[in-house]
Every structure is written in C-alpha cells, then in structure tokens.
Design brief:
The complex is a heterodimer of chains A (about 280) and B (about 300).
Chain A lengths: L3 H22 L4 H18 L9 E4 L5 H10 L40 H14 L6 E6 L6 H12 L5 E7 L8 H4 L5 H7 L3 E6 L3 H13 L5 E6 L22 H21 L1
Parallel strand pairs in A: 1-2, 2-3, 3-5, 4-5
Helix pairs in contact in A: 1-2, 1-3, 1-9, 2-3, 2-8, 4-5
Chain B lengths: L4 E3 L1 H14 L3 E5 L3 H4 L2 H6 L4 E3 L4 H13 L3 E7 H7 L1 H9 L5 E5 L17 H5 L6 E3 L4 H13 L4 E5 L3 E3 L13 E5 L4 E5 L4 H13 L4 E5 L2 E3 L3 H10 L3 E8 L4 H9 L8 E6 L9 H7 L4 H9 L2
Parallel strand pairs in B: 2-3, 2-4, 4-5, 5-7, 6-7, 10-11, 10-13, 13-14
Antiparallel strand pairs in B: 1-8, 6-12, 9-11
The chains are: A alpha/beta (about 280), B alpha/beta (about 300).
C-alpha cells in the first residue's frame, strides 16, 4: 500500500504520460484525464492486483479519460512507455477509448457514455453470487450523469444493497462545451444519490489524503453501495489548462507541450524534495 | 397440413431449466417479463440465479456484459424490440468486447400482434446481423430451439437466438442444426427455392405445398443460422434454381432477403430474388393472423412473388 505522498508522485508521473499521449496524438481528452487521474492512480496502485485470478475491478465509464488508465498501466509495467506516442494512431493497441481485447487488464470496453455503472453492477452481482469479496469501482464523469442509464443502475444497486460497489463521479464541473450544471444541473447531487439508497462521500478528488480516506470509508460500508462525489479541477496539474473548457479534447502545440512538461517536471522535483 | 402447431417461447423456460441443472454458471436476467418469456420457470427452479432488474432494459444488457466479464454466463431474455432496438448500443458495446452473453429474443417481427407497430420489431435482423462478433440463430421448431441454446452455451462469445411468439409446426428437426449451416428441408427440383427464417416456418411449408400442387418442383431451405450464414448453400441455390424467394417476419429491407441479396449480388449470373416480408411501412394492431396477412405473409403473396416477372 502506498501512502499519499508516494501516490502523489505516481499521479504526477501519470500526468506527464497523459500530456505526452495527447501531444503525440494531437487529439484526446486532457481535461477529464487530468481531473480523474489522482483517484484512478490511488485505486490501481493500492486496490488492484493484476496477478489475482479474481480481483478488484475498475470500470472507466467516462472512457474518454483512458489516457489516465494507460499512464497507470505504464506505471504497472503493462504498457511499454515507448508506446504512449502511438495513442489513437492506426495499428496501436492504445485505442481512443478502453477496449478489453488488447489489454485484458481493462475491465470494460466503454466509451459510449452511461453504460459503465450497469457493467460494474453486473460484475458486482457476479462477485456476490460466487463469494468473491473484491470490490468493483466505477467512474463516470459529471456530464455523463445526465445519461438515464446511470440512474437505472443506481436504482438497482441501491435496491440490491450492493455494498461491494463503489461509484465515483468525477465532478470537474465542466462538460464538453459548457459548465455541466448550466447544461442540465446535477444538483442536489448528493441528495439524489442518498435518495437512491447510496452511502455518499464527498471529497476533494485531487487531494490524495482525502481520496485514501474515502476509499477506506467505502470499504467499511455495509448494506448499501457507496458513491464518492469526487470534486475535481478539469485539467488539474497544468496551470494553463485548469478550468478551461478548451482542454476537454484539444491537442497541444509543441510550445504548450513543453510548457506543460516543464510545470510537471518542477512539480516532480518538489514532490521528490518532500519525501 | 398434417402437423400441430407450437409456440417456441413457451419452451424457453423449460430449456433454460434443463441447461441450468447442468451448468451452475448460467444466470438468467429479466426485465419484468418473465411470465411472457417463460423464464419464470427458471426463476422457480433457481431463484438465486434469476436476476430481476425491472423495466430498465439498457441497464440489464450492460449488467449482462458485467456478469460475463466475471466469467459467468448471463442469458438475457426479453422481447425482440427491446433487445435489438432499445438496447442496441449496449448490445453493440458487448459485441465489441466479444463478451459471452446469450440473448433470447421473443416476439420477433409482428409477433407482438395486438400491441401494434410500437412493439413490432420488423427491423431486428437488420439491427443485429450487422454487429461484428454476434452470432444470430433462428430456430424453427422445438428441437432446433433446444439445439440453438446448446450451441449458444457451448460457444464463447455473444449469441442472439430469435424465438417466435407465434406458433411453428411441432415437427422434429430434420437434422442436427449447426452454426453456419442451412437445412435443405425439401429438394424436388430446380424450378425455385424458398429460403425462410424460423418465424415463418408454417407459411414457408404451406407455400411449398401450394407450389407442389401447381406442379412446380423446387427446394425448401430453412436458413437457421443467420450469422454466420451458409453462404455456400445460398450461392449454389442461386446458381442452380430458376427463382429464389425469401420469406421473413421482418421488413424486406436488411433482413433475410437483404442478406441473400448481399450473398448473391456478385455472381455473374444468378436466379432473380423475390423477397416476401413487410414492405417499408409501420404495421398495426390486430390478431396475429390478420396482421401478418395484411402485411404480406400469405401463401398467395409468396406464389405471386414466385410467378411475377
């Protein structure tokens, strides 16, 4: 188990990989990958053991944030670092959205928003039926919560008291084009989730200490599924991207790439000094 | 004709119970229609392996994907309109992942008769047969349905079984059916060949008899496996007989007729193909027989198509 400081270092390395992937592809979803990478890093590092036959599952329902997963797979030695520049290219295994054929460590082929909660529920049901005690984590974007199927899955999960299931909403407040709550408001989100019989935890999803506490709390909940409202900053970690809608799915110029990497390298040095 | 009729969907629950006894990994999913699909029989026998998700079909389809990911075998039974239509992107996504999900779709085509066009699924073959990785079977009698379920369970990957609500002749299978193999039911000559899918078996057999009475000698072919399809058989027929007729409880666009057209279109010479099915319209409510007759599924219509220039 890594502590918060160690995980911050890994997450920062993953941010550099995310930026590199999207720079070489000249297209990809930087904002949502950077907002969600902290909690994804924490779950993959501390909760998932790919050597186990039955294991903890991670479903990325907001499949467009897949660079955050590929970055972590580099960290885990599943993907060779040199392949990152092939992201979204023809003949690459690094598809634009998660695809289980090439990497069975990806637990669900996603991308069409709104389906991941249900897939995770299916995994959780199967795990309960066969006595597998591992958890299933599934992350949706905040804009994705406008999809009705999510609420079908939440309703069924609450009904069946799926306490092996942890829903994470990456609440970075920005959708593809506008602030999420200006398009169709999710609020009051926590109340809605509670009304669906979920245990709700609200955190700063870019704060590793809070992330670890939330995961620990989710593991203790009995008789109901947990929803972690992970309040994040879109584009987190690269100052000129933070909270700017343009970085939802934009490529980078060489100058922007160098500027972003310089910032992340400085952060890396800072984190190294802090250990 | 000398046979009794039987509704295949009434056997779904019984067959799943038989298979469920042999294989503890089978889970049956329902969307509040277990009585109509007869999976309530499985529910009674294996309550722990029967999963009710209410009237939320897309949820159920993606849940099936998740269950398959964990190595279990989900069987999702529901009306065709929901499985092929309401859940199409969810189905597509699990086909993309090539997950081991089994689908039993009842009430194909106009089989939801009284419910009307909203519930008629005259487009389902076009929707499902275009999905890569998906196998599509169309059994035409109880033996074939039983065998289709066995084939589906033995196959690693998504399989769609179309199961009629209307009745089919209660006859034994002519031969053991296989994926990718059509069954030549009758072969009296080369005047014509009727190719049909499971839901219209009775009409196809009656049409063949009517042709015989008119002195026409042809072939009667039960397609059984829509995907993979018996390309070889169809091309041989198209190169040999004088006329091809497809019959389907489906629009003539993109279904069995469309499939046969795709298969023979690049042959330098082939028999003309006539398609019997619903034309490009929405249908309506009514008794099953009356609805099907109004929208073209009659012996007279088949004969007309066979004889027209």
């Amino acid at each position: 188990m890594k502590n918060a400081k160690q995980l911050e270092q890994v997450a920062n390395r993953n941010r550099k990989r995310i930026v590199e992937m999207v720079y070489h592809a000249d297209v990809g979803h930087l904002g949502g990958a950077l907002s969600s990478v902290d909690i994804l890093t924490a779950i993959y590092e501390n909760e998932v053991d790919f050597q186990e036959e039955q294991r903890t599952r991670v479903v990325l329902s907001k499949g467009h944030a897949v660079p955050a997963v590929y970055a972590e797979f580099v960290e885990k030695g599943i993907i060779d670092e040199t392949l990152l520049k092939t992201f979204r290219h023809v003949n690459s295994r690094l598809q634009g959205h998660p695809f289980i054929r090439d990497y069975p460590q990806v637990d669900a082929s996603t991308g069409l928003l709104g389906q991941g909660f249900s897939m995770a529920l299916g995994m959780a049901v199967a795990k309960k039926k066969c006595g597998d005690l591992h958890k299933v984590y599934v992350m949706a974007g905040d804009g994705e919560m406008q999809e009705g199927q999510n609420w079908e899955a939440l309703m069924a999960s609450g009904h069946y008291q799926m306490d092996n299931l942890v829903f994470i909403i990456d609440y970075n407040k920005l959708s593809s084009s506008h602030p999420t709550n200006e398009i169709i408001s999710l609020e009051p989100l926590a109340d809605k989730l509670r009304a669906f019989n979920l245990h709700v935890i609200s955190i700063d999803g870019n704060d590793m200490e809070q992330i670890l506490l939330a995961i620990a709390e989710a593991k203790t909940v009995k008789g109901m599924p947990t929803a972690i409202i992970s309040n994040t900053v879109k584009g987190k970690g690269v100052s000129f991207m933070e909270n700017i809608p343009k970085w939802h799915a934009s490529g980078l110029t060489t100058e922007e790439f160098e500027c972003a990497m310089r910032e992340l390298n400085e952060k890396e040095e800072e984190l190294n000094r802090g250990i | 004709m000398g046979y009794e009729m039987i509704t295949l969907r009434e056997l779904v629950g019984t067959i799943l119970v038989e298979e469920g006894k042999k294989n503890p990994d089978i889970f049956v999913l329902d969307s509040d229609l277990a009585k109509s699909t007869t999976t309530n029989k499985f529910q009674a026998e294996f309550p722990d392996r029967f999963l009710e998700f209410g009237i939320a079909e897309q949820n159920a389809m993606s849940i099936a994907a998740g269950i398959a990911t964990e190595g279990k075998i989900p069987v999702y039974a529901n009306f065709t309109i929901f499985i092929s239509g309401t859940c199409w992107t969810q189905l597509r996504q699990l086909c993309y992942a090539n997950l081991n999900v089994k689908l039993i779709a009842t009430h194909p085509g106009m089989d939801g008769c009284y419910d009307g066009a909203s519930h008629h699924s005259n487009e389902y073959l076009a929707l499902v047969r275009t999905l890569p990785n998906l196998r599509v079977l169309s059994p035409s009698n109880p033996d074939e349905l039983r065998q289709a379920v066995k084939l589906a369970l033995a196959y690693q990957g998504p399989v769609y079984i179309s199961c009629v609500r209307d009745s089919v002749p209660n006859l034994p299978a002519k031969e053991q059916v296989e994926m990718g193999k059509a069954v030549v039911m009758e072969d009296l000559g080369d005047d014509f060949a009727i190719i049909y899918e499971g839901a219209v078996t009775d009409l196809a057999m009656r049409s063949f008899e009517a042709c015989k009475e008119k002195g026409m000698k042809g072939k009667l072919v039960n397609i059984f496996s829509i995907k993979p399809v018996d390309t070889d058989c169809i091309r041989k027929l198209a190169g040999r007989v004088k006329r091809l007729v497809t019959i389907e409880n489906h629009t003539v666009l993109g279904g069995l007729g469309g499939l046969v057209a795709e298969i023979i279109c690049d042959m330098p010479a082939h028999a003309p193909l006539k398609r019997v099915g619903v034309e490009d319209v929405f249908t309506e409510s009514g008794p099953l027989k009356a609805v099907k007759e109004k929208y073209g599924l009659t012996v007279e219509h088949v004969l007309e198509k066979l004889e027209e220039d």
